[in-house]
Amino acid sequence: MVDGQGNLRPHWRGILAGLADGAAGSFGEAARRMERVFAEGVTSLLPGEVPGVGQASWRCDPVPLVLPAEEFDHLAAGLTQRARLMEALLADLYGPQHLVAEGLVPPALVYANPAFLRPCRKADGTASHPFLHCYAADLLRAPDGRWHVVADLTSRAGGIGHALENRRMLSRALPGLFRGHQLRPLRPFFELWQDALQHLAPQQRAPGSDGPAVALLTPGVHHRLWFEHVLLARELSCALVEPGDLSVRNGGVFLKTLKGLQPVHVLLRRVPGRGLDPLELDGGGMGVPGLLDAARHGTVKIVNEPGSGLAEAPGLAAVLPALARRLLGEDLLLPQPETRWPVDPGVLENLSGWTLHPATGAHGQGVVPDALDLAARAELVSRIAARPADYVAQQALPASVAPCVQGDALMPHPLRLRLFLMQDGSQWHILPGGLARVEAEDGSTLAKDVWVLHQDNARIAGPAAQRQPPLAIRRAAGDLPSRVADNLFWLGRHAERLEGAARLMRATLCRLDRGPLLPHEVAELATLSRCLHHAGLIAAEEQPSGAGTGPLREALLRSVQPSGAVVEQLGQVGRLVEAVRDRLTADIYATFTQPLRSLLAQAATVRGLDALEALLAEVLRYTASLAGVAAENMVRAGGYTFLDLGRRMERAQSVASQLHFALAQAPARVEAGLRLALELCDSVITYRNRYLGILQPAPALDLVLADPGNPRGLGFQLRAIQTLLADLGDAPLAAAAAALLAEVEAMPPAILASPEQAAATTTLAPAIGRVEAEVANLSDAVTRRYFALLPAAQALGGQMEAAPPATAPALTDIY
Amino acid sequence: MNWRVRHVTTYRYAETVDMATHMLHLSPRAVPGQRVLAEEIRCTPTPSRLTQGTDHFGNRVTWLSIDQPHDRFEVVAEAQVETAFPLPPPAEATPPWEELAARPGPEAVEFTFPSPMLPENAAARDYAASSFPPGRPVLAGLLDLNARIRRDFTFRAGVTGIATPVSQVLAQRAGVCQDFTHLMLNGLRGLGLPARYVSGYIRTRPPPGAVARQGADQSHAWVGAWLGPAHGWVGLDPTNNLVVAEEHVVLGWGRDFSDVSPLRGIILGGGRHWLDVAVDLAPG
């Protein structure tokens, strides 16, 4: 930030002024605004405190890291050279391996490196090129201002989605900050990238495929960087797929969608190379059997090539300067810290000033011996002395710092920069931005936006240096994967199940907290308890016997405690929302998840029935907003159809079961049963308005069974199911739903025609119970037909190559 | 000598397999001392796709996929092979073992490192070490180790599986050819000596008057040991205490069994399965 004389570097003046007054008022306010914007936008995209999903944090400092044009151009040239070097190195190691024979690459860093994927090698040099489509490097700035490369990322080069999102959030939180600065935009890089991916598609494609289909392959929702995969897939307009969504048929790679198998031509992988194909590699059984064979035959292009992570082994840095001369005939443009592999006795004697990394495997922050206590240091020394080739020592650079907001002031913190490059087939392009990270006081990591300034206007001569090639027309492989439809269907079902549980419990509670029960209340409570038991909310022995409701109260309270039925249901909803997050806009996602967290927190504090009732009211508000937001904001196609279908089927089943229990009474009690039926279908007021106070079976049944206008009635659900199935083009299943509807619609007129309405009403109970079973069958049919549950895969005949246990300190970088 | 190989692998499944993808290491490779005259692989059901190539080690590989539902999968691999493996040099003519351990050379160095099924194992190293006193010519030590394994261990089928670790073989002093080969590799690599896992066959019926060989009706395995650039590799069969010369046919090699498993696959469905393997290697 300051030059050698202690003066502020010129580009900093405007930014600091902007932060302190113009844009935000104060540094502290700027930081708070960032937190707010992140809470609304990004944090909601992070795996939150939803049960079953891990946690992550992502905070961004309002002060950007600013790179003047000249400084950045130097970095761009140096990293482009390094990318070319990595490419040449991989081409040799996955080809003829001259470098090993010549003694330039130590054999241990190849043959004992778990990142060397033997099935990806073509000894005759016919392996598909290029290996690298994207590349990233981590850099540290030395006190003299020179950037040093401390890590190469050749496998997946993660973090670029973060970089883009940091920029977006900063410009949303502090738009004033950008005024008066000529900084290079990030978007053109992503346009180029998207285009380059399309061009990677094999020239000869299967007949019937209409354009190159690009997909981003993610390990799935449980991966800690899943949200970055979502962001990236959106940015690059490609389908987000998991290994289980793909199938190799006849040498081609296909995505399993509702419309059947759709070809995929390019896979941008965010899955470790090892996890691509369980037939030839061991990623713990992960992957798509036959994928490597398909890639070898060029029907699909995987980027970066599986196995390209080999080049990022920290130990290789020791030989990179020599390799640059041998492979490129050039000296490295960017310095790197001195690196010793294997760790020599001289280093071991005095570890101060060194950072230690595992020689192979992923880059991490490394172990800083100076930060260890004596015992830990001695242990480290003996561990390394026993196996010096498993470690590499990298000279620690004195911390170079960048200003970060802390409280209301700026404090300097050590900074690490990651820059991203992409190769379009003819040349490398660098993202004019990046991801900077600082370690905050409390040890947490804080991100920073990276600004690359344009050259001063005066220095720009002639047209812009980089010509933009015309963008090709692209199509995304956007058809709904079966897995997504499956998850949406179950999200609909579980959200509705949650609502049904809350309604049932509320109806029960208002009879429990009124003191001594009247006889008709005892009967109603018995019916409600049967419903609760049927819904799995209470156990059989917890149903009240006579007026003894103690166990029932206990059971209801228990249902909102951890691992109680309601909490489990909230967890299911949370899990499924995470699983379909890439299908939801940020707003919808926030509506779905934020109340969920507070509901879980509130549930944990419930001790009495009053608090329980308040919680249930909140649950009902939540499910109502869920339904409302989905209905008002989701496009009526594919995804929403399944969400709604799940909800309608669940509601049809629960309404049918509740009516079944309500009507299964002695004829003398039918009136009480009907009253309860109206209550459970939220139809008491409607009935009263229509028929005043007179309760008769036929009109009441018409309202809860047949009335097409009652959204809580059974007929309404069946009609909706029929329409949704017809929308899917599924005539046979739609016809089955129509038959059920006709059966239900015929019930009220039959009762009306009956001379003895009360007695006839009670005989309906079993028929309505059968409707519940029929809807369940329909649901199974939908599941079988659309979600194509495949039988489990198993491996035959041979120990797979297992990932060796980490022999060295496991300090994996989160990116 | 000319050989006819017939190797039949049959999987039977309790439930229907909807889809299967397999990788086969069942085609003999050409090596110094071995010519492949004819060779064929037949599968039932007929694969919807079948491709062939070579792997990192230069072995011949067949990939195939089956899209039709099946409850039985059979592979018949047949080959005609001519072998005339050169005899190794006199043991005294080979370099001291420490020399090779110190400089294994680029063509052999890969086979000095631990591998998926053979992590470092101090007990195996110590077992091998007593065959390698200081300065002993490498082949002398190898022959001694080969003989000791035959003497100290009992050939017994069924006490080990394809994934049995060497530590268990050492403890129970019994196993099959794969186990003895892994033990020897583990020990040699522990000393820094390059050694590789060779997959292949041994003559099924002995010539009149000779003893029957162990492991003859199954796939066989032995050790390829490095004698230095002047003499190359030698095949040593610890299961029978033989130097590979007249009774073996090579399929391929790797670091351990996992690199050259004759047949592996990923199947969808299938439930329980039963495996049946029949091998016949006869002069012809």
Automatic annotation (TrEMBL), chain A:
Residue stretches making up the Circularly permuted ATP-grasp type domain: 64-438
Superkingdom of source: Bacteria
A Pfam entry, by short name: Alpha-E
Any coiled-coil regions, as ranges: none
InterPro entries found in the cross-reference section: ATP-dep_Glu-Cys_Ligase-2, CP_ATPgrasp_2, DUF403
Span of domain DUF403: 480-787
Protein name stated in the entry: Uncharacterized protein
Automatic annotation (TrEMBL), chain B:
Highest taxon listed in the record's lineage: Bacteria
SMART domains: TGc
Entry-linked Gene3D superfamilies: 3.10.620.30
Domain Transglutaminase-like: 169-240
Pfam families: Bact_transglu_N (PF08379), Transglut_core (PF01841)
Descriptive protein name: Transglutaminase family protein
The species this protein was found in: Teichococcus wenyumeiae
